[in-house]
């Protein structure tokens, strides 16, 4: 009996020990799950507060640059003594890359960022590296840049997330507005984060020349004032000059698109373009596109083409030659192409092929009053056929994907000089001023007219069934209770993130492709321009 009692006591003790271990395991797992949930909620809050959705396009841009880039043309930067001195320095310094328009500064910066990332893996302590591209006026605003830099730091250093989250909410209550919209607050919060980092920070900021003067001066003042906290802010300048070797490498890479030509012709192009490129990568790229467009394949035609080819300093002449060749000197084609390119240039978000086609159709047919009549005028294939050399990597298989952007910001400068119509021989027959203020007015007119089309006014946005489901949100996910939510990735596109979600598309309500853009952006156009629409039309919306 005593033996049985001792045995039972041993069993009980082992059970209690195992239960204690199990409790610790469960507590540990619970804490990890709670921590993961907190991190996920932090990520969602940071993404919303700091407008991280704008960074997805930058990731795509850098990916495209990596595909088309000739790495050998950038490797000389790694051997430059000024770059080596900058990287090996123990104190804060600034490295700035200068170069003429189209010389590949952005591509070179992306290359350096990749190489720095590899170098940092073998360095202790490992520096924190993040990069941002001011690709237009909107992303070049001080609040946009500071918000993006803050967000990128938070994704790299998880330990900063909780204190930032608490401070941001506190600031929001005190200010009564989003702190990310206040420059002084964001400068202070970013400085506070940088002071807490105990290792080097390399900040790659590209495209400051895309910012307006006031924004650029404000950003530079902030960066210089707090450069002691940033590993890469060093007072050093590196000019991206042209060189025969670099030009030859760029030309060789670009000529891969003409691999159907004979070796003799490719050799002729290689020698001629390398000698004339003067470091302009965009000139080389657009020249190759022009050769493709003209379908030159004989030696005599190539030689004649090269004799008349404008030099890189006359890049606008290259653009004009390309557009004249595409439009064939046809007035309507020229007008359509210029309107389409200006809409892409002035848009504050990437447009889809269909949205662009609908906007162009309405902009060039002001007398249209119905969606049905407008739909008959939409020619998205024609629009893309006329502008494709100026659009970066369009995916024609996804006409509703938000993807359209210009190949280079110099195209935007060239557009501001172009008339609305041309005849063969460059005779201008009708000129419309497409300066930034006027194109904003043009786009406002399009938005207002679209929202006042007969069907738009008459059709209910939500069907009766959708409205009923909106009142009963618990029923909307009843059919998919077993589905796990997609893990949030701040670098993914919205199309990917929303792929498996139930989505409401106004197109399904017969509201057309332009409804979402027009209804979301007409107010921003109203704030930034003098509109030519009738004031009564605006008040009707």
From TrEMBL:
One Pfam family in the UniProt entry: NPHP3_N
Matching SUPFAM superfamilies: P-loop containing nucleoside triphosphate hydrolases
Top-level taxon of origin: Eukaryota
UniProt key word Repeat: yes
Gene3D superfamilies: P-loop containing nucleotide triphosphate hydrolases
Keywords: Repeat
KW Repeat (keyword) present: yes
InterPro entries associated with the record: NPHP3-like_N, P-loop_NTPase
Record-annotated Nephrocystin 3-like N-terminal domain positions: 73-235
Protein's recorded name: Nephrocystin 3-like N-terminal domain-containing protein
Biological source species: Penicillium brevicompactum
Lineage, opening ranks: Eukaryota, Fungi, Dikarya, Ascomycota, Pezizomycotina
């Amino acid at each position: 009996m005593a033996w049985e009692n001792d045995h039972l006591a041993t069993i009980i003790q082992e059970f209690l020990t195992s239960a204690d271990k199990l409790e610790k395991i469960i507590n540990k797992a619970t804490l990890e799950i709670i921590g993961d949930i907190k991190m996920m909620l932090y990520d969602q809050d940071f993404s919303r507060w700091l407008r991280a959705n704008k960074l997805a396009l930058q990731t795509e841009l850098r990916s495209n640059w990596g595909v088309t880039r000739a790495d050998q043309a950038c490797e000389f930067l790694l051997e430059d003594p000024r770059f080596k001195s900058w990287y090996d320095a123990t104190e804060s310094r600034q490295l700035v890359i200068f170069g003429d328009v189209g010389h590949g500064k952005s591509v070179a910066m992306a290359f350096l960022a990749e190489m720095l990332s590899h170098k940092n893996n073998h360095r202790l302590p490992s520096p924190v590296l993040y990069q941002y591209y001011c690709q237009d006026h909107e992303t070049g605003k001080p609040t946009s840049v500071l918000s993006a830099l803050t967000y990128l730091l938070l994704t790299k250093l998880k330990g900063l997330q909780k204190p930032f989250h608490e401070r941001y909410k506190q600031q929001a209550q005190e200010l009564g507005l989003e702190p990310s919209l206040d420059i002084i607050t964001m400068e202070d919060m970013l400085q506070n984060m940088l002071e807490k980092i105990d290792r080097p920070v390399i900040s790659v900021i590209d495209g400051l020349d895309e910012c307006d003067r006031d924004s650029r001066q404000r950003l530079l003042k902030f960066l210089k004032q707090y450069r002691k906290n940033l590993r890469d802010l060093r007072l050093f300048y590196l000019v991206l000059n042209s060189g025969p070797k670099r030009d030859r490498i760029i030309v060789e890479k670009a000529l891969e698109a003409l691999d159907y030509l004979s070796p003799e012709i490719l050799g002729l192009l290689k020698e001629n373009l390398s000698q004339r490129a003067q470091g302009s990568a965009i000139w080389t790229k657009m020249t190759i596109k022009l050769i493709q467009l003209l379908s030159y394949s004989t030696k005599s035609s190539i030689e004649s083409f090269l004799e008349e080819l404008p030099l890189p300093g006359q890049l606008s002449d290259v653009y004009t030659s390309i557009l004249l060749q595409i439009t064939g000197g046809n007035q309507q084609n020229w007008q359509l192409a210029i309107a389409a390119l200006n809409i892409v240039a002035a848009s504050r978000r990437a447009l889809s092929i269909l949205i662009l086609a609908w906007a162009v159709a309405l902009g060039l047919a002001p007398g249209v009053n119905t969606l049905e009549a407008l739909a008959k005028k939409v020619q998205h294939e024609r629009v893309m056929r006329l502008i494709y050399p100026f659009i970066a990597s369009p995916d024609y298989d996804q006409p509703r994907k938000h993807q359209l952007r210009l190949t280079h910001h110099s195209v935007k400068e060239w557009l501001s000089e172009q008339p609305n119509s041309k005849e063969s021989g460059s005779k201008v027959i009708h000129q419309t001023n497409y300066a930034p203020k006027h194109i904003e007015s043009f786009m406002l007119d399009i938005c207002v007219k679209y929202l006042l089309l007969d069907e738009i006014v008459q059709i209910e946005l939500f069907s009766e069934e959708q409205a009923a489901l909106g009142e009963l949100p618990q029923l909307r996910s009843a059919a998919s209770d077993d589905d796990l939510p997609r893990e949030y990735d701040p670098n993914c596109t919205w199309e990917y993130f929303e792929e498996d979600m139930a989505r409401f598309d106004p197109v399904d309500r017969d509201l057309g492709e332009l409804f979402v853009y027009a209804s979301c952006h007409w107010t921003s156009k109203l704030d930034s321009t003098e509109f030519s629409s009738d004031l009564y039309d605006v008040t009707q919306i």
